[in-house]
Amino acid sequence: MLNINLKDGLMINAILTGVTGLGLALFAELSAIYLMPGAPVWLISALGIALVVFAIDVGIIARWKSASAPLVGFVFAADLLWVIGVPTILMLMPSAFTVLGIVAGLAVTAVVACFAVVEWQGLKAIGSANPA
Question: At what angle do helices 6-26 and 69-92 cross, to 10 degrees?
């Protein structure tokens, strides 16, 4: 099993999230056509921009010398929300997505779930290093 430390996991999360966000923001019209036909282009673009902002935040958190439990907890909560939210949306609105959109959504969700596991392990390590 691959063992990734918290800082590396956060940085990889930031990079992949940023690339995904840039792709959605720059190619919102194509993304709408191939992933979610009928979706407003502005909505896809807004999601991309939000992901870029989140990626910048995660990158900043990853670069700090010591990990902050509240900030790592924020990233973990956001990733957990993604892991729960995307499959829920896919189940509630399956006809809104193409097969490629469903596969892409689930693939991204699987990667985000891996990040959430790394963040959870990091939070446990922070908690054990800082006894209350």
Answer: 50
For the purposes of burial, counting CB atoms within 10 Å of the CB of 9, is it exposed (0-12), middle (13-18) or buried (19 or more)?
buried
Residue 54's Cβ-count burial label (10 Å; 0-12, 13-18, 19+) is buried
- Overall pTM > 0.85: yes
Q: pLDDT, tens digit, for every residue of 55-100?
A: 999 999 999 878 889 999 999 999 999 999 999 999 999 999 999 9
CB 92 within 8 A of CB 116: no
Closest to 31 (Cα-Cα) out of 43, 19, 16? 43
Cα–Cα separations (whole angstroms), residue 121 to 25, 45, 87, 110:
32, 32, 23, 17
Residue with tokens 């790394």: 118
